[in-house]
Specification:
Number of strands: 0
Strand content: under 5%
Oligomer: single chain
Number of helices: 2
Structural class: mainly alpha
Helix content: 40-55%
Order of helices and strands: HH
Length: 68
Amino acid sequence: MTQDGNPYDNAIAERVNGILKVEFDLYQTFGNFNEAIIAVDMAIAKYNNIRPHFSCELQTPQQNITLC
C-alpha cells in the first residue's frame, strides 16, 4: 500500500487487509477475478454491517456512522 512496500507506513490499511484475509477467508486463491470480486464485496458488506468494532463502541460502522 506504499511506494517502498513498508507496511508500517500505512498501518490502518494493513490492519483492514489483515482482518479481511483472516476473518473473511480472503487469503485463499480464487479461480478467477469475478470470484474474487464477489468474495471481497461480501466481506466488505459483513465488515461494515455485521462485524462490531471497538472504535464504534462495539457497534457496526453502519449502526454508528457518527463514531466511525
